[in-house]
Amino acid sequence: xxxxxxxxxxxxxxxxxLAQHGISLLIEKDGKRVLxxxxxxxxxxxxxxxxxGINPSSIDxxxxxxxxxxxxxxxxxxxQAIGRRIPVIAHPTIFRRHFIVEPYLRExxxxxxxxxxxELADLYLVDEPLRILEGVYSTGEIRxxxxxxxxxxxxYTIQNGKRVKDELMDDMSLAIKTWMGLVVVSGCxxxxxxxxxxxxxxxxxxxxxxAVVGGFHLIEAxxxxxxxxxxxxxxxxxxxxxxGHCTGLDAEAAFLKAYGERFHKLHSGxxxxx
Length: 274
Description:
The protein is 24% helix and 28% strand.
């Protein structure tokens, strides 16, 4: 299995690849390709795919981890580049109104309508675990969240005409079984990365966690939460960590200290093999 980093917040040292706040990964397994998130816009993805020798038409599935614009904004452009109808897998509430009010009212969810996607692709909106390929599963909605990973995000939605806090229940990840163990791929980990890893282990029955890949959303986390997260990774036996995007410098430093050479900072153009 290979995982290509099509776009990330960081492009690397002396790199020809483009960076952008957001993330998009391409998972290649058993001759099939799953696009995991689409960044803010399609242009840097398509540029980087060209450098990697990847034709957009080779993509078989799109998986959206959650509604945020920096994970979904490139979807329309990517589907147009793919040029044929393929499944797009996401949570049933992904197209809801999702916004912030500080410093001003701003929509931060999917930047287009559901109908626009349905013109180009087949939507599979499922909140339960879903087998996408042999050994590749959506975690579904993460309902069992770790208490220490709960936090205030300052995002809202509208229910029955009222503004309510949005718990981002649409946050989903991928659990991938390999001969080397379980690989967990997350977008922003709003559900809590430790809870996500535990959910992936339950779904797959795997006890060996080969790697966790993605953004961990610890950028504003306390030192206590970061330390607890690192210790839980070690207790669960996570062997390697590949992270960036919304993880934050303090958390990356803590993982680097704990994991040494088994810590890897994500960057555009990076290729992982498992």
